[in-house]
Amino acid sequence: MNETTEFPSVQKLIHGGVLPPNHYAANLSLSDPIVPALEFFLSLQDVVGFSSKYKKLVKTPVGSPDRNDRIVNWASMCAELGAIHLVVHGLGAQIVGFDQISPKAARPKADCDLVVVANGHLFFVEVKRKASQDKQRPPETLEMILSELTLPCKICGIELLDRNYDCRNFGAEVPKIKEHVEKAFSSDKVPECFVTDGFKLYFRSGQNTSNISHFFDPSFSDDIAPYLLGPSNKKDMIPMVDQVIEKGADYLICRIPGWEDWPTIIENCFEQVSYSNGRTYFTKDNRIQGLRGIVLFSRYNDFCIVNNINDQSGAWLTA
């Protein structure tokens, strides 16, 4: 890839002094999968509301690498960028507005992420993402420090136990980790897991490197269904359908982990589903309520549509 000609708008964003140095994408590689979607978004300057969305892009994924906040915020921004690309290139729709208020909004000033036109119909769209896996990512500084530790074995994995963990006080853990490892090696054993309130480390024989695996609880369809439709066993969690209906959206576009194929996810999440063609399904599931449908995607080019057949207008997105 020729970095002098590919994705010129992204290059200008990264290298033109636009992003603050503590922005997660300040050193974004042009080989990153999100770059084509970012380049496309930056071409939409004439769309109503572009400036507000652009400001969000520049200001939101900012923070300290000692926590994972900016990782989580950047993942949220990437979900929106992916949805923007998907709507046009996957669904054949036209984006006519960003961050606009729907006439059906139940809350004043509660805007929808996208306004699109497809098949002669206007749709207000809200973008969400299943963030539980992103929130289990260890802070960047923690990964760097662990990879630089001098140990007689390799740290092969880390599991974040406290999703709000701040590693600025990590120095106090270093002697404990070394003592734990050395005690095991004195008995010619590979160390068992090292556990603190914030994280858990896994070891194996070999030389310590920067290649440390992340361990996390993956999200499958049995977790995705209550997240989308309810009811949830999490006390403060409002299902995404309820949230977007309050904003007056016609469609929910939601990024989810892609551990299962789409037929499995659709079958396990929705009731009374029928397959149409291509990437389009229809459901009689009343939990969708007044939405025209839900678009699920794991990457901006890997998605499916679940339309609400109870909506008699026939105004649906298809692919």
Write a brief caption for the model.
By secondary structure, the chain is α/β, with parallel strands linked by helices. It has nine helices and twelve strands.
**N-to-C order of helices and strands:** HHHHEEEHEHEEEHHEHEEEE
Shape, please?
globular
Mean pLDDT: 92
Give me the oligomer status: single chain
Count of separate DSSP helical elements: 9
Rg of Cα set:
22 Å
Assign a percent range to the helix content: 25-40%
Measured by DSSP, the beta-strand proportion falls in 15-25%
Tally of DSSP β-strands: 12
Distance between the termini: 31 Å
Strand pairing plus helix content: what structural class? Answer: alpha/beta
Describe this structure in words.
With 319 residues, the chain is an alpha/beta fold. It has a domain at 138-215. Helix content is 29%, strand content 22%. It has nine helices and twelve strands. The chain has helices at residues 8-15, 35-42, 50-59, 69-89, 140-148, 174-185, 221-229, 240-246, 262-269, and strands at 94-101, 111-118, 121-129, 154-160, 194-195, 199-204, 213-215, 251-255, 273-277, 280-283, 293-299, 302-308. The protein has an eight-stranded mixed sheet with strand order 1-2-3-8-11-12-10-9, with helices on both faces. Strands 5-6-4-7 form a four-stranded mixed sheet, covered by helices on one side. A hairpin with a 2-residue loop joins β2 (111-118) and β3. α2 (35-42) packs across α4 (69-89) and α7 crosses α9. The protein is globular, with a radius of gyration of 22 Å. 33% of the residues are buried. The mean pLDDT is 92.
